[in-house]
Amino acid sequence: MSSKQIAFFIILVFIIAIPSVNAQEITIGEKADQKSIKVVINSANEIHVKHVIASLNSPKQIELINGTITNLTVSDEDGKKKQFGVIGDNDGIMIFPSQKNTIVEYDLGDVLFLKDNVWTWNFLYLETTSFIIPKEVDSIFVNNNPVYLDEKNGIACHGCQMILEYSIDEPKILKNVKLEDKEFLIEMRTFAEINQFNFDQSTKSISFEVNGKKQFVTTIIPLELLSNPYNVFMGDKKILFHQYNNGTHVWLNIRPDNSGNVSIIGTTVIDDEKLTIQNNPSTSESSVNQDIIVYILLGIIVLIGLVVIVIIMRKKRSSVTSREIQDDST
User: Fold this and answer.
1) Would you say 14 and 27 are in contact if contact means Cβ atoms under 8 Å apart?
2) Which sign does the torsion angle of CA 149, 152, 158, 164 carry?
């Protein structure tokens, strides 16, 4: 048996004998270079993790994501199984040298919990990690901030510590409202009960009653109906909200602590004529120019009038003088 084989054997025996410890306290060997880490969450809220490790010329370790790990496999990029050593209670593994990338895969459990109708994961893994979210979900919450996925299927988290939250099959409430001669569709997404929905045309405001604590409420509003800036009130008190604008609609998200009446107020209604002038500088300049022309014309008319008056007065004086001279001569 060669000296290298003996050394590997000793390391392997030592690794197997390591008791269960926190993965962050493991100090055996250097950390492997991870090319990518992908976390896939399916519609049944099952999690599969895949680490891609760059080629190694010496034994190195990787930490596994905290949780209950099952179906752990290690292979090369061609799918050929490789030997590895487990550190602690599946806290990490030791990978042996390879000229090819090493693929580490496992299922992860006991990390997602349903809380207030929202799936929640308090995630910590200090490596760049990609998350693939269930296809039914088009928005998630990261540390209480909404992230709208649109056509994307997930997010990337750098040096990641976050509280990930999302809902599946969140009820949708559709409301048709009318402004002047147009109809608009407002969509609301929430597990809370929504009552007394109303759109006030005069104030361009939306109001409704939320019945439920700590429930996300997302209101999707056409921008043509209600435009930025926005204010959101619970009763008569302003509350925190987040917004996302996709060019045609705005997503307004709130999470009230308690039940109550919510009001969403958009831009103050102003006169259409004033709005046109404010939004069209050329029109404004044209109006100013027209005013100047009017003033000039008025000035010319007044000047002509003064000249005519002066001429008439001079003619009168001239005729009077002529008569006086005639009288004197007689």
Assistant:
1) no
2) positive
The reported pLDDT for the residue numbered 116 is 84
Single pTM value for the model: 0.68
Find the DSSP H helices in the chain.
3-16, 272-279, 281-329
SS (H, E, C) 27-96: CCCEECCEEEEEEEECCCCCEEEEEEECCECCCEEEECCCCEEEEEEEEECCCCECCEEEECCCCEEEEC
CATH of 3-166, picked from 2.60.120, 2.60.40, 2.60.98, 3.40.50, is: 2.60.40
Whether pLDDT at 325 is above 60: no
Look at residues 11, 28, 39 and name the one whose alpha carbon lies nearest to residue 104.
39
Does residue 172 surpass a pLDDT of 60? Answer: yes
Label residue 316 by pLDDT band (50, 70, 90): low
The least confident of 161-170, 261-270, 304-313 is 304-313
| pLDDT tens profile 63-81 | 999 999 999 999 999 999 9
Rg of the chain on CA atoms, in Å:
39
Name the strands in the sheet holding 242-245, side by side, starting at the edge strand that comes first in the sequence.
172-179, 182-190, 217-222, 249-254, 242-245
Q: Which residue, among 229, 228, 208, 204, has the nearest Cα to 218 in the 3D structure?
A: 208
In this structure, the number of other CB atoms found within 10 A of the CB of residue 192 comes to 23
Give domain limits for the chain. 3-166, 172-272
DSSP one-letter code for 23: G
